[in-house]
Specification:
single chain, 478 residues, alpha/beta, Aldehyde Dehydrogenase, Chain A, domain 1, Aldehyde Dehydrogenase, Chain A, domain 2, 2 domains, seven-stranded mixed β-sheet, six-stranded mixed β-sheet, 16 helices, 20 strands, globular
Length: 478
């Protein structure tokens, strides 16, 4: 694993000004595999000032210059794919196959999408007599999570650099290795000094300092709703723009047709992927009341067929969750669900059989769940699925929308017209019909799932200010 005892600031690897550090644990073995330096306010200030110093020149760079640099980053990223995959598996326990085929490629895909968008993006357009200019907002503070570390880093870094912003990245302290390799990628690609800066650290220290800093023009945060509220409060004092991608409790409505069994199976698999540590996972499965028994049998078979174990093994579907704290929280939420009357269909409390070491969670399906139970309302962030029933489609929509969140929603069924009509009624930032997925589609939530959008063209707007130059056409005419 890379050493995480230095930060990347102004084009150089520098020693932290803070002396704090945190042990990094391999969640599969519960063993310390390294340390990460925890940056403080002075470290953040140094990085922000480097980004500010580089901001003017980078904002003035041409579209072609930025395209060329992003392509160099893409090449350098692909050359380090193996190192990035190992880092993700070690720090957060993703199965090696998932790290290689999903975690690392998703980062590369978001970068490729940003390159495509940049080549055609309308930074200027004339509307009547007025010129609309879209200009880089300046210094962007980026705070990313541990669950899909490379995906979330690239969702922010790629559009920020593409639009002419400079960056200070603060990754999760639980996933420092992949971010450290990522910084090495950008250094190797020749990113100009100060355009990209990396400060490791935790939320109360580096994250809060970055959100408060008066020279940071916007902060983009992905993480829990609780932490997102803290970021917004820290940022309010300087009235900077705040973009948030927060929690979710996403519903999957399975329609009453011949494809029900296949759609239930696909939904269970999607909810369990990455050990359930996906904010948009379809963790509330809604099925017709009269087909509950059939649905539960399918869900049980899928969950019990998932192999849990050492993420280095080729045949493992699920690795551990990221930490003991997360494991204990998941156990507490399952216990609360059982106490409230939920019934275990598959999985349940404790580690899977034969696994005595590691933060492993049993793939769990719970039935007899009502919409008011905490297990149906709180984000578990583990391989835990609740099954609810609906009487008709109006009832299904009512249950689906009965949540504080609104990040994603899913509809599966043979009648595409019916699925489209349901999608229009679901209060979520992204709706998937029959498992469709598009990395270029705008991603973000309603209500407590955040504000703003990542991915594709709309992500660019988060990093741009809009200027109206009135009389522009008349001036040209003279």
């Amino acid at each position: 694993m890379p050493e995480c005892d230095k930060f990347y600031i102004a084009g150089e690897w520098v020693s932290p000004l803070s002396t704090a550090a945190l042990d990094i644990e391999d969640p599969a073995r519960e063993q310390v595999v390294g340390q990460v330096a925890l940056g403080g306010e002075q470290d953040v200030d140094r990085a922000v000032r480097a980004a500010r110093d580089a901001s003017g020149a980078w904002a003035s760079s041409t579209r072609d210059e930025r395209v060329t640099l992003l392509r160099e980053i893409h090449h350098a990223y692909l050359r380090r794919s193996a190192d990035l995959a190992v880092a993700v598996t070690t720090e957060m326990g993703a199965p090696a196959a998932l790290a290689r085929t999903a975690h690392v490629p998703s980062g590369a895909a978001h970068l490729a999408i940003a390159i495509d968008v940049l080549q055609e993006f309308p930074f200027e357009e004339v509307r009547g007599d007025t010129l609309i200019r879209r200009e880089p907002i300046g210094v962007a503070g980026l705070i990313t999570p541990w669950n899909w570390p490379l995906n979330q880093i690239m969702c922010k870094v790629a559009p920020a650099l593409a639009t002419g912003c400079t960056v200070v990245l603060k990754p999760s302290e639980l996933a420092p290795f992949s971010a450290q390799v990522f910084a090495e990628v950008l250094a190797a690609a020749g990113v100009p000094a100060g355009v990209f800066n990396l400060v490791q650290g935790d939320g109360p220290g580096a994250g809060s300092a970055l959100s408060r800093h008066p020279q940071v023009d916007m902060v983009s945060f992905t993480g829990s709703t609780r932490a997102g509220i803290a970021v917004a409060r820290d940022a309010a004092g300087t009235v900077k723009r705040v973009h948030q991608e927060l929690g979710g409790k996403s519903p999957l409505i399975v329609l009453d047709d011949d494809a029900l069994a296949a759609n239930v199976a696909r939904g269970v698999s999607a909810a369990m992927t990455n050990s359930g540590q996906t904010c948009s996972a379809p963790t509330r499965l809604l099925v017709p009341q009269h087909r509950l028994a059939e649905s539960l049998e399918v869900a049980r078979n899928v969950a019990e067929g998932l192999t849990v174990g050492d993420p280095a093994s080729a045949d493992v579907a699920l690795g551990p969750v990221v930490s003991r704290r997360q494991w204990e929280r998941i156990q507490d939420l399952i216990s609360a669900g059982l106490a409230a009357g939920a019934r275990v269909v598959a999985g349940g409390l404790g580690r899977p059989e034969g696994l005595r070491v590691g933060h492993y969670v049993r793939p769990t399906v719970l039935a007899d769940v009502t919409p008011t139970m905490a297990i149906a309302r709180d984000e578990v962030f583990g391989p835990v699925l609740v099954v609810l029933t609906y009487e008709d489609l109006d009832h299904a929509v009512e249950i689906a929308n009965d949540t504080d969140y609104g990040l994603a929603a899913y509809v599966s069924g043979e009648d595409l017209g019916q699925a489209r009509r349901l999608a229009a009624r679901l209060a979520a930032g992204q709706v998937s019909i029959n498992g469709a997925y598009d990395l270029a589609a705008p991603f973000g939530g309603y209500r407590r799932s955040g504000n703003g959008r990542e991915c594709g063209e709309l992500a660019f707007h988060e990093f741009l200010e809009t200027k109206a130059v009135m009389g522009y056409g008349s001036a040209l005419a003279r």
